[in-house]
Amino acid sequence: MKPTLSASTDNQLFCWLAASHREAEQAFAELYARYGQKLYLYCRKVMGSNSDAHDAFQEVWMQFHAAGKNGTAVQNVSSYLFRIARNVCLNRKRSARTFLNIEDLECVSHDKPYEQRELLSLIDRALDVLDDEYREAFVLHEMHGMAYGDIAAITGDTIPALKNRVWRARKQIRELVAPLLADL
Amino acid sequence: MDYNTLLQEYFDGELDEQRESALFRVLSHDTALRQEFNTYVAMQSAAQADAAQTVLPASATASVFGALGYAISGGSVSTGAVTTWQRLRSYAPYVLVSVVSSLLTALIFFLLFPWHENQTTPVAQSAKAVANATATRADGIPHTEKTPVEGSRSAAVFPSRTAQSAAVLAAHVPLVVSSFEEQREEAAEGSMPIEPVQPVRAEQHIAVQAVSSNMEILEISPSVLPSAFSLPSVGLSSVDIAARSILASSYPSVDIPTQTSSSFTNVALSAWYQLSQEHAIGIECGREAFGQEFRQRVGTSMATVRQNPTLWWLGASYRLSLADMQWSDWHPYAQAVLGGTEVGALGKVVLGAQFAPSRNIALLVGVEGSMLAYPVEGVYYTANKLGVTYGIRVQF
């Protein structure tokens, strides 16, 4: 007797992607519920615009689903998913000339205090200026709250290197944001 | 002491208690460092708050699920219905509705059209009266049979169309019926001309009524007509199956691809039990796409979700064949289906025409309308479809 979806592990759900259509549909929906929002946040922050994030987000899930359908052996499903997202986002950024579109920097909710909205807007603009590897490390550690070990499983870098990147990203963002923070 | 390292370890959550105390001691009198520390705190808080409050757009979800051909479950992605028993339980209400509808339909029609095989009916009495009466031949010359009335025997000597109708009527009266074989034997013995009993058709029904008015016999009760006019090919054991294809447009119109890998899509199969020439009940199942558009909470916001899932459906059916309105081999029919899918109840109505080149096969074509009612977070929505259907029906 199979466990309920919410009690299933990521690996069990990933294996069910290769099962019947009904089971694959339910397993995919559960995985999507667990990682959809985090993955979209990653794509949104790394790609820098809603439209690019939307396209990358869909491509990531297509590749992920295809891998599950083909029975790809995966040890850590979340790391695998974010590795796919990383590759997709970096490839898209390299192949496309992206321009900073002010209209796309709509990442805040009007429910938040004014100062926080402004700060988020500043942080987002600063992220766009960062190198890809710094931006990625900052988003995964600061926004997703991932441990350095999990980030290392995604990027393939060493933990000391990742720590260094996160700290450098913090400093660079602070240098860009600090003069403007005084006005808030 | 490297304060940058202390700050880094503090925000990474790796600073022990002793070193943390040292850091705060420095922050208490170093304004520049304190400003830097406060900036990092604000950045971290804003980033974490932003991450927690980021809403996954419903359009992104719809495009992902639509591209994969999966349905977005209304209200919850985690149905928990993985086991076979849980899956069957989810279909139980719709199966129950189908079975109850079938039983109710059968009960209603058995009450309206009672089937009494051995009852002496007014028709039987009328038939006997007709058989006893003097019939008028087509040429207007009165004709009186010579032999005493025995129903079918007297029917055998009425060659005219009117008399033949009476013969048919008499032939179906239980009390006086004798088989055609008996007639033939009797005819072989004597010189009695015989006419084979012909299957009753609509015009003969009219002819019988004409006979009735001429002969002033008892009025034929409509409630016993099915018994008197039952066809050899239509009885309690009559079963047929049908397969049809459905081409329809959805309202709301949802331009999202649906799962099309299965060949069994937009097709319906049914099994029918004919209560009479006009009425039949059955069970029908099929699989087709339904365009859905509804409001659903995604994170902290309400989003409009649009999807085009392909769903299995099952229902109880009723069919009315208007054989009286036949033209050539065509006659109209109406069909209603009441059942459900895995997401909600479903109702269908078909108005069409049937072409029956032979007794066992009929081609179907018609217009079909359907409505799917499904709940999402306590609110009911409908998915409507209108289109054409065509298929084939095979009678055993």
Describe this structure in words.
The complex is a heterodimer of chains A (184) and B (396). Chain A has 184 residues and is an all-alpha fold. Chain A is 72% helix and 0% strand. Chain A is built from 8 helices and no strands. Chain A has helices at 10-16, 21-47, 50-69, 77-95, 114-129, 132-143, 148-155, 159-181. Chain A is elongated, with a radius of gyration of 18 Å. Mean pLDDT of chain A is 83; it is low at 100-111. In chain B, the strands form 3 sheets. In chain B, strands 3-4-5-8-9-10-11-12 form an 8-stranded antiparallel β-barrel. Chain B has a two-stranded antiparallel sheet with strand order 1-2. Chain B is rod-shaped and about 105 Å long. The N and C termini of chain B lie far apart (96 Å). In chain B, 33% of the residues are buried. Residues 74-83, 117-181 and 191-236 of chain B have low confidence and may be disordered. The interface between A and B is large, with 52 and 46 residues.
Please name the defining characteristics of this protein.
heterodimer, A: 184 residues, mainly alpha, 8 helices, 72% helix, elongated, B: 396 residues, alpha+beta, eight-stranded antiparallel β-barrel, two-stranded antiparallel ribbon, 11 helices, 12 strands
Q: What does this entry show, briefly?
A:
The complex is a heterodimer of chains A (184) and B (396). Chain A is mainly α.
Order of helices and strands of chain A: HHHHHHHH
How many individual helices of chain B?
A: 11
Low-confidence stretches of chain B: 74-83, 117-181, 191-236
Total number of helices of chain A: 8
Amount of beta strand of chain A:
under 5%
The unreliable regions of chain A are 100-111
Radius of gyration of chain B: 38 Å
Give the CA-based shape of chain A.
elongated
The residue fraction in helices of chain B comes out at: 25-40%
- Estimated structural class of chain A: mainly alpha
Task: Please state roughly what percent of the residues of chain B sit in beta strands, choosing from under 5%, 5-15%, 15-25%, 25-35%, 35-45% or over 45%.
Answer: 25-35%
Mean pLDDT of chain A: 83
The chain pair forming the largest interface, with residue counts per chain, is: A-B, 52 and 46 residues
What is the ordering of alpha helices and beta strands of chain B? Answer: HHHHHHEEHHHHHEEEEEEEEEE
Number of strands of chain B: 12
Report the major sheet of chain B: 8 strands, antiparallel, barrel
